[in-house]
Give the backbone structure.
Amino acid sequence: WSVPLKSVFVTFPGDILKNKTDTELAESYLQRFGYMNTLQRSGFQSMVSTSKALKRMQRQMGLEETGELDKATLEAMRQPRCGVPDVAN
Amino acid sequence: YKTFDGDLKWDHQDITYRIVNYSPDMDSSLIDDAFARAFKVWSDVTPLTFTRLFDGTADIMISFGRADHGDPYPFDGKDGLLAHAYPPGEGVQGDAHFDEDEYWTLGKGTVVKTRYGNANGAECHFPFIFEGKSYSTCTTEGRTDNLPWCATTADYSRDKQYGFCPSELLYTFGGNANGAECVFPFIFQGEEYESCTTEGRSDGYRWCATTANFDKDLTYGFCPSRDTAVIGGNSEGEPCHFPFVFLGKEYSSCTSEGRGDGKLWCATTDDYDEDKKWGFCPDQGYSLFLVAAHEFGHALGLDHSNIREALMYPMYSYVEDFSLHEDDVEGIQYLYGNNRTRSHSPTTDPTDEPEPTDPTTPVVPVDPTKDACKQDKFDTITVIDGQLHFFKDGLYWKKSSSSEAELKGPFVISEKWSALPAVIDSSFQDLLTNKLYFFSGTRFWVYTGKNVLGPRSIEKLGLPSSVQKVEGALQRGKGKVLLFSGENFWRLDVKAQKIDRGYPRYTDAVFGGVPNDAHDVFHFKGHIYFCRDRFYWRMNSRRQVDRVGYVKYDLLGC
C-alpha cells in the first residue's frame, strides 16, 4: 500500500554522480569547506573528529549544535552554495 | 561578518573588471547588466568605483566554466556549487568563476530578451496568445524561415508587438564573427555539420561556423541557447524531444524517472535507450545578480558570514527585493570605509513586479499583471466546484479540470469571501453539503454560499494546541477529511465536527514516498497531490507515487 513505485536508477552519461550516502556526503562537505582541518599554532595541520567538525559547521550555519548528522544538517549540506570554504585554509 | 586572514584588500579604490566570456543561458546585455548591478551593490556603500575593461588584465576577471575549468577547484555539475571567487591580489586572486552547468537567470525562470521585431528588444511575455492559441515558449508558428519568435505583450493578435528569440539562425556570441549567424551546413575538419556542435572543444560550449567552410575561413561564434534548451547533461543547448523513449516507455513531458535526486530531465532525441542524449529541463535557475554580488564580496575581501540574511552567507536563496544587509555593509566598510556622498539605496531586480494592491480592500482593482506563473509557491491549492483554486497573499486563480482550460484570475479573496484573511493555509469543500472550509493559522471559517461561520479555533475540532496551522486537507469518502500539519495528519468527521480517535498518525507511515513536510495536500482527478515549493508528488489510488512534476507547468499550465 504505502510503498512508492520501485524506480530503476540509471547512470546518465555526462552526469556528475551525486548518489552519495549521507555519510559520504557529510564527509566530503566537511572536508571541502574546511571544517575537518585545523591549523595548530605550531603550523601542524590536524584532522578534527567528525563530531567536532559537524558542530563547527552547525554553528556557522546557525543550526542546533548537536554534533550529529541530523536531518537539518543534511538538508543544509544539500543546499546550493558558494564554493569558497567556510573555514579558511 | 568575516574578512580573509590578514584582511586581504585592494590597495586602490578604482577597481577594474572584465567579462571574459558569456553564458548562453541569457542575452549578453542581461549578463552585463547583472554584473554591473552586482558591483553597484558594493560601490553604493564604499568609496570603491568599478570600471569595465574589454581586453587586457583587470583586477576582477569574470568567467563562466564547467567542471574542471582551469583552477584547482572544479565545479560539480548542476546545483551544489554555483560559483567561487578569490580574495584580492595578483593573478587569479580577485577573479570570479561561475558554474556553466547551472541555469543562469534572474532567479525567476527563463528570461527571453528579444532582438529585432518591433518591440525594441523587450522581453517575451509568456504566455501570449497568437491566432487563438496560447504559447508559453517561443514559437516558429506563422513563419516559414524557422526563426523562433514571441509576443512581448499578452495578446499578439491585439497588440502586434513581437521580437525574435535567441537562435543560432539569427546571431552568435563570442568567437570571431562579430555576432554573425550560423551557416548550415558547414565544414569542420572535413566533416559536414547541420547544427551547432561541441566537437573540437573541451569546455562543452556549442559553436558553429559563420561561413560554409570553417577549415578555409576560420570564422565562428557560440550558439545562444533557445528558451526550450536543456541544461547540462550531455546535450546542453539542445531542445527536449517529445515524445521520447526511456527504458522502453514513452514520455511526453520531462520526468524524474531513472534519477535518485528527483530532478526533471528529458531526452533530446526520440530514443534515449539508443542515443543516450539527455539534459535537465529548465527550472527557475539561479539569479546571476545575487550570486555575482556575493562572489564580488569575496573578490573585495569578505569571507563568509554566519548571518543567514546576509549576502555573504554561503548558501543561495532567492530574494525578490534585495538590499544589502547591515552585516555586509559593516564588513565592507571595515575594509574600505564608507562613502558619505553616496546613498545606500536598495538594488532591485529589473524583473521585479509591483506588489499586489491591498487585497483586503474590495474597491481596489487587482493588478492584472500579477501572474500565477510567476509565483514560487502557493499558500494553498484546493478544488472548489470541480475547479482547481490557487491561493496566494490575498489573491486566487482558478482553472477547470481540463488540461487545456485557461487559467483565470487573479481574483481578490476578500471580494468573494469577505471574512477571510489574506493567507489561507488550507481549504476543502465538503462533498455532502458543499460547504467550504478555510483554515488560516489556528482559526477556521465555514462558508455556506455567502453565509459565513467563524472564525473558530481549530482546537474546537479537537486538534491539539501545538498545531499552529493546517497545511493540507484531503477528502476521504463522504464526511471524512484528513487534515495535515507538520509530519502528522488527523481524520476529521465533518458531520460531528470532531477529530476521530486514533489520530494523529505519521504522514510517511501511510503515504510513503512523498515529502512529509508538504505545504499543500489535495485531491484532484482521482489522484492525491502533495506539494512542496514548486514541485508536486502525485499519488495514485494504490498510494503509489506515479509522478513528480512542476506545479507551474502541469497544474497551472504555464
Remarks:
- The helical segments of chain A are 22-32, 50-60, 71-77.
- DSSP finds three helices and three strands in chain A.
- Residues 54 and 67 of chain A are 5 Å apart (CA to CA).
